[in-house]
Automatic annotation (TrEMBL):
UniProt-annotated location(s): Early endosome
Domain FYVE-type intervals: 208-279
GO biological process entries: positive regulation of fat cell differentiation
Gene Ontology molecular function, alphabetical: zinc ion binding
One GO CC term on file: early endosome
Keyword field: Endosome, Metal-binding, Repeat, WD repeat, Zinc, Zinc-finger
Name the UniProt record assigns to this protein: WD repeat and FYVE domain-containing protein 2
Positions of WD repeats: 122-155, 165-206, 289-322
Gene responsible for this protein: Wdfy2
Organism: Dipodomys ordii
Length: 327
């Protein structure tokens, strides 16, 4: 569903591919049917109404993205995605649409009145994209995934910067962004509500380096038969330090540490030298954690009141006062 409070227009995507549009009465006690859009061949997965352009954007299980004119009901164009879409965001100023799908890919399209152009596509998740959230001021895109992570993509910076945020123990189900405080709210299947401070200078996680032996003690890894034979040593299992990215053995990476500025709010594997170099200030958390006590499937944040609404698989709707933490 997509609801516009200014016009009280409610757009609902249906299982048969139709989008039904209603106008709600001022007292919210009556719904008047306005029109239907024959948008997709199968179930509608996402729908978004854009008041400024009078467009209705949608994606479906038919792997199609489509947009319609809400005044005439006419289909303006479409684009076939690589997988079923599960996230949809739109930037009014530049007319860019962001589509996240079940394969983990994010696609950016530039929309005109009756055609669209592929700008780029990228992937950083090991699981499917489950939620997207766009900040039009800082021009960054947040994507949540079934791989338990959130990635912040710096679209406006044009440098390809991607910052990982690891704070959930289950798939990320929903994202919302408080622009006035630069805080991201992520909710997951683990019942966790995480409030991330995005007003700090975060660091990209390093690329994992490849090596046939430990880059600290030079012990061979188990597939390096030549060095194992020459040194008469048993091969070891390879690990990676989350701070420097070096390939290390278990003995040289026995320590654990949180690295919040790299998005690791939980303790992760680091090599011994990096563990010694990380200061207490660098371990200071940049997120707060809250237990919703239900598996969240949908979230809506009202920035004016500081209220967060969550609904879960337990068929319960909860309303949270977020003013103590989102401020």
């Amino acid at each position: 569903m997509s609801f516009n409070p200014e016009t009280r227009r409610l757009s609902i995507g249906l299982d048969n591919g139709t989008i039904s549009e209603f106008i709600l009465s001022e007292d919210y006690n009556k719904m008047t049917s306005v029109k239907n859009y024959q948008a997709h061949q199968s179930r509608v997965t996402m729908v978004l109404f854009v008041l400024e352009l009078e467009w209705v954007l949608s994606t479906g299980q038919d792997k199609q993205f489509a947009w319609h004119c809400s005044e005439s009901g006419q289909r303006l164009g479409g684009y076939r995605t690589s997988a079923v879409a599960s996230g949809l965001q739109f930037d009014v100023e530049t007319r860019h649409v962001f589509i996240g799908d079940h394969s983990g890919q994010v696609t950016i399209l530039k929309l005109e009145q009756e055609n669209c152009m592929l700008v780029t596509s990228f992937r950083g998740h090991t699981g499917g994209v489950t939620a997207l959230c766009w900040d039009p001021v800082q021009r960054v895109l947040f994507s949540g995934s079934s791989d338990h992570s959130v990635i912040m993509w710096d679209i406006g910076g044009r440098k390809g910067t991607a910052i990982e945020l690891q704070g959930h123990n289950d798939k990320v189900q929903a994202l919302s962004y408080a622009q006035h405080t630069r805080q991201l709210i992520s909710c997951g299947g683990d019942g966790g509500i995480v409030v991330w401070n995005m007003d700090v200078e975060r660091q990209e996680t390093p690329e994992w380096l490849d090596s046939d032996s430990c880059q600290k003690c030079d012990q061979p890894f188990f597939w390096n038969f030549k060095q194992m034979w020459d040194s008469k040593k048993i091969g070891l299992r390879q690990h990676h330090c989350r701070k420097c990215g070096k390939a290390v053995c278990g003995k040289c990476s026995s320590k654990r540490s949180s690295i919040p500025l790299m998005g690791f709010e939980f303790e992760v594997r680091v090599c011994d030298s990096c563990h010694e170099a990380i200061t207490d200030e660098e371990r200071a958390p940049t997120a707060t954690f809250h237990d919703s006590k239900h598996n969240i499937v949908h979230v809506h944040f009202d920035a004016t009141r500081g209220w967060l609404l969550t609904s879960g698989t337990d068929k319960v709707i909860k309303l949270w006062d977020m003013t103590p933490v989102v401020s």
